[in-house]
Amino acid sequence: MGFFKNKHVWITGASSGIGEALAMALAERGAWLILSARNETELNRVAAAAHAKGAAGITVQPLDLARHDDIPVVAEKVLKSVGKIDFLFNNGGISQRALALDTKLDVDKQLMNVNYFGTIALTKAVLPNMIMHHLGHIVTITSLTGKFGSPYRSSYAAAKHALHGFFDSLRAELANTPVQVTLVCPGFIRTNVSKNALTGDGKALGTMDEATGKGMDPARLAERILGSVEAGREEVYFGGKEVLGVYLKRFFPRYFSKLIKSAKVR
To answer: How far apart are CA 145 and CA 159, in angstroms?
Structure first.
């Protein structure tokens, strides 16, 4: 439990779902939390709960990952306040529930702007501080769709694939530094991700997917993520039977291609 104690941990997407679960688990471990998302009211709710669970300290910092020019300014403000970031959990993002042909290009761009460009913008803003202090661990929550494509997730999967390309490259570039990189690939997790997912015209879906509703409890996922980070894992997969897709795609690509066409992903 001492691994995260008094460490400064920045979590994006901290107002609900996986981010909130990570905040609770880290609070119990005595971490100092920096909580970011767009919804400041919900961030304050999470902060109050994290305080009750024993967080060493809490900074609430609203952040919109789509506003790329604001990110370095926000990062500078946070670093000036807390001094250093030991762990950055890139968790903020938005999903998709629409066929590629039904999705407007502006929606494709929005998914990339939030999920990919917003994530790497924050990483680039924080990384020099990590290198200067000779410490740091960047944990990026991608998705199993970062390893294989899925119907109704074309641009979401594209953004997650892009994250893998970026952070695999970054890990290699940081080989001679103490900074570590972990990619976390969840499958179906029981959060509001499907309710908030964008449809073809950019509106939220507003309903819970059956598969998502039956997914892993986010609190359980958070515990497994933290265990993987503590163990120094580079890439991990979590979920139910959907995790098998990673291995089917790798070793039996033609069989996987047939399987994914009829997979129940909504």
So the answer is: 9
